[in-house]
Amino acid sequence: MRITPSRGVLVAAAVVVGALVAPVVTALPATADQTTQYPSWQDVQRAKGDEQAAAAEATKVQSALRSVQADAAAKSQAALDASAVADRAEADLASAAQAATSLQAQSAGAQRTASRAQERAGQLAATLYRDGSGNAMTTRIATADDPDQLLYQLGAMDQLSTTWEGVLDDASVASRTASSLHDQAERAEHERDSLARAAEQRSTAARAASDSAAQAVADTQQHSDELYAQLAELKDTTAQTEQRYELGVQVAAQKAAQQRARERAAAAAAAAAAAPAPTTSAPVPTSGGSGTSYPSTGGVTVDPAGAQAYARSAIGAYGWGVDQFSCLVSLWNQESGWRANALNASSGAYGIPQSLPASKMAVAGADWRTNAATQVNWGLADIHDAYGSPCAAWNHEMSENPHWY
To answer: pLDDT tens digit string along 165-202?
Structure first.
């Protein structure tokens, strides 16, 4: 399936560096359409001849872009979170079902063992009481005339008694084991039933979140197409130029925000340790590929070959050649296998470039959760701003243990 380039680009720096949104059970903000006043083409045409008015109108357009993108970004993150929760619930259910099945089998086996032990104990008890002629063993011993016969019968009775006691102990242990396993199996079945209900609820929530995100993304792209066209009209450029420019600006803003966060963290650590702050601080990873899973994120088309083809067509805009593309292939093979739904469950890094947090990719388009091309666009801009080239990013990746760039 051909991957189409993403269209909408998020402008708001606040959304750019925002943390992961609350789980799907948290109320989401009102949609942009309920609060945003979109500039009209008449406003744009009136402002175009006046430099000051054009600048003011461009600010209004950018503000509208921030608003229209924010809602889609939040709902996409909610959909991603809900999908991850649903996948964990399914995994828990599968584990519980396997445990319940195993305990049921063990319980049935233990019950059969207990039944056999009890049957054998009963048979030996009957043997102790009666001999082959049907007479009571104790009566025959008491009336025996031959001393040798008496000694023999006493020895036989002693052996039978010892064997019967052992069998009785075995039957008692088997019965307790069967009872314990039966109780465990019942508890496991209850746990499985509870987890099945939870998994169904999580799955329903994930589908609802995915549907909500898809609608928000569609609305956002419709508005952002027009808003970027208006910006291009005001600045005498093209919509594509405005998108690329804003992407570069906002990725740079992300890096600046990360640098400030590093500096604050270093200062806090230094203060806590009552030691001078270090002159340099270790960079905070913006991506991560270890512990990657592949959640069932609704709407995502996983097409590594298509994603690579799109990336090959896009790197020329940065002046990179085939040598850089080979490094990029290695880099994102390491990070995600070029899968658009790659998720690091422990860190939250997501997508082909393993954006951390995932929502940073919203600056490249509202459809960052599902569109591989949008993820690639963000990843290329991020590499350009942070390392200058894919090969530099790949060298950094290989120099770190565990690997990250």
So the answer is: 677 777 788 788 888 888 888 888 888 888 888 888 88
Q: List Cβ neighbours of 61 (8 Å cut-off, separation of 6 or more).
A: 39, 44, 227, 230, 231, 234
Give domain status of residue 354, yes or no.
yes
Check pLDDT > 90 for residue 11: no
Instruction: Please indicate, yes or no, if residue 20 is contained in any of the structural domains.
Output: no
- Residues 189 and 165 both lie in one domain: yes
Residue range of the domain that includes 391? 238-261+294-405
pTM across the whole model: 0.63
Tell me the two tokens of residue 395.
């060298």
pLDDT band at 35 (very low <50, low <70, confident <90, very high): low
Residues 89 and 195 in one domain: yes
Total domains, the chain: 2
The predicted pLDDT at position 302 comes to: 92
- Is 314 contained in some domain? yes
Cα angle 141, 144, 150; round to 5 = 65
Residues 100 and 211 in one domain: yes
**Distance from C-alpha of 62 to C-alpha of 35, rounded to nearest angstrom:** 15
Nearest Cα neighbor of 75 from 35, 36, 10, 26 is: 26
Same domain, 243 and 135: no
**Separation of alpha carbons 368 and 347, rounded Å:** 18
Please tell me whether residues 180 and 247 are part of one structural domain.
no
Looking up tokens 């298509």 gives 306
Cis omega (within 30 of 0) for bond into 402? yes
Task: Classify residue 124: in a domain, yes or no.
Answer: yes
One domain, residues 88 and 122: yes
At residue 319, the 3 state secondary structure works out as: coil
Q: Are residues 182 and 318 in the same domain?
A: no
Say if CB 123 and CB 163 are below 8 A apart.
no
Distances (CA, A) of 31 to 6, 20, 34, 174, 212: 21, 18, 6, 64, 11
CA distances from 138 to 23, 121, 134, 150, 373 (A): 78, 19, 12, 11, 93
Judge whether residue 16 has pLDDT over 50. Answer: no
Question: Both tokens of residue 167?
Answer: 């069998």
Q: Rounded mean pLDDT of the chain?
A: 78
